Amino acid sequence: MRRIFGSVRSRATLGATLVVAVALVAAGAAVLLSLRSNLMDQAGNEAQRTAQNVVAQLAAGKPYDQLDLDDESPVQVVDANGTLVAASDELERISGTATDAVKPQPSSGGTGTGAGADDDDDADDDSGRGEAGEIGEGTEFSDGSATIDGESADYRFAAVPVEAGDRGRLTVYAGGSLDAEQSAVNTALTVMLVGFPLLLGVVAGVTWLVTRRALRPVEGIRGEMAAITASEDLARRVPVPGTHDEVARLALTTNETLAALQTSVERQRRFVADASHELRSPIASLRTQLEVGVAHPELLDLDGAVEDTVRLQGLAADLLLLARLDAGERPGDARFDLGALAREQAEGRAEVTVEARSAQVAGSRGQVGRVLTNLLDNAARHARSAVTLTVRREGEWVVAAVADDGDGVAEADRERIFERFVRLDEARSRDDGGAGLGLAIARDVAVRHGGALTVGRAPAGGALFELRLPQAQ
User: Fold this and answer.
1) Burial of 433 from C-beta contacts in 10 A (0-12 / 13-18 / 19+)
2) Residue 165 above 70 pLDDT?
3) Dihedral of alpha carbons 147, 151, 154, 155, sign
4) For residue range 380-426, what is the model confidence (pLDDT) as tens digits?
5) Helix ranges, 60-149 (H)
6) Are both 354 and 420 inside the same structural domain?
7) Are the C-beta atoms of 165 and 130 separated by less than 8 Å?
8) Average pLDDT for residues 457-462, to the nearest whole number?
9) CATH code of the domain containing 393
10) What is the chain's alpha carbon radius of gyration, rounded to the nearest angstrom?
11) Which stretches does DSSP call E strand in 200-247?
């Protein structure tokens, strides 16, 4: 059960069915109430017309026993004392009016007799005829039931008053049958009870099929991702549907993520391989010198061993810094003077000329210092005679520029030199050229500080490296 309702398709189908069910119930209730109200009004109007017909006869002074009463509808004439003075001939039972009497009684005022009075008395006595009167205003309605000629039914009763001259105030009650209302409401209710479930079934089926069709590409993406996870083949890509909708954009984003992940994994593999290669050389050299020193102490090259140890230490430090940068280490938000830091890094370098203005930046002072050191080391390796270090402000940026008078960097290689373990001059020895990590570290640090590191052509013809960092607010 949990698995069934745990799918998007099942929840969408259930949700759509519930929404349609609520809408149908609300619409059906509104239709039934409106239908019942209209039919009740029709029954009331019919009852009012019947009552007004009798009222007109009473207002004209017509005797009770000569009233033209509708035999198919219940009619009562009640005087001011609540006495029934006239009623339909076939009326057997009534409720919902002022009295439940069905046989007329002599009026308490002695002004008339009911329709069921003795014929001889009617012939000899004209007291049932009254003077002309006036039709009153203010019809009132009520619901009840009546039995006419053995048939019982519900009725809408209209009570219409009339001033009948010397007979006083009379009230005529006439009923309009509610059979049509009940029949129509019952028919509509039956149609709804039968049709609504069928309609809900159609809605559920259509929603299930449409959702299945819409989610089929998602299932394809899920299946391909599962296969990629099982095979660990990041070169595979998920299928992209041609619908140009959210699912297609999801597939495109997934493929972009896979491509970035593949690049990251390949970069990590290359990094591990290159790091192993770079570490192998100084370690092997150091081991050889130590083994020779053990066998022949007089041949131990202490200066070379120290140099290899220092190189190995520097390479290990670079690798650890790259590992921290790849892990997302935050640079911090400490403020420091980039001009003062530049002068500090250039101290003791005879070939470096410094022109550094004070400028505040935020971040890791140690990491930015490492960038300046790497740039100065790189410039010193390639310069013929001079290196220039300047720090200036450019709007919201602080720019530290390192220029040399060497051969410079070819335009085609100006991005490649920032890749890890890249040395443009492959013939250059590792001792002279380093491991190819300095510029890669410098750019990573610059980017993580919200800045950039670019290379161009210096005025003296050599390389010009510009480190741009946002000025501290």
Assistant:
1) middle
2) yes
3) negative
4) 989 988 999 999 999 999 999 999 999 999 988 889 898 887 766 54
5) 119-124
6) yes
7) yes
8) 90
9) 3.30.565.10
10) 53
11) none
Q: Summarize pLDDT for 255-266 with one digit per residue, the tens.
A: 999 998 888 888
Q: Are residues 149 and 49 in the same domain?
A: yes
- Amino acid, single-letter form, for residue 297: P
Q: How far apart are CA 434 and CA 213, in angstroms?
A: 59
**Phi then psi dihedrals of residue 267, to 5 deg:** -65, -40
**Nearest C-alpha neighbor of 93 from the set 159, 144, 49, 156:** 144
Does this model's pTM top 0.85? Answer: no
**Containing domain of residue 188, as a range?**
1-230
Which residue type does 239 have?
A: P
Beta carbons of 274 and 315 less than 8 angstroms apart: no
Residue 373 included in any domain: yes
Tokens representing residue 88 in the block = 């339909």
What pLDDT is attached to residue 123? 37
Q: How far apart are CA 97 and CA 143, in angstroms?
A: 8
Section 6-24 average pLDDT: 87
pLDDT of residue 179: 87
Q: Cα–Cα distance between 93 and 106 in angstroms, integer? A: 19
Q: Are strands 169-177 and 151-163 parallel, antiparallel or unpaired?
A: antiparallel
Q: Is 235 part of any domain?
A: no
Q: The tokens of 426 are what?
A: 């492959």
Q: How high is the pLDDT of residue 388?
A: 95
What b/e readout covers 295-324, taking b as 16+ CB neighbours within 10 angstroms? eeeeeeeeeebebbeebbeebeebbebbee
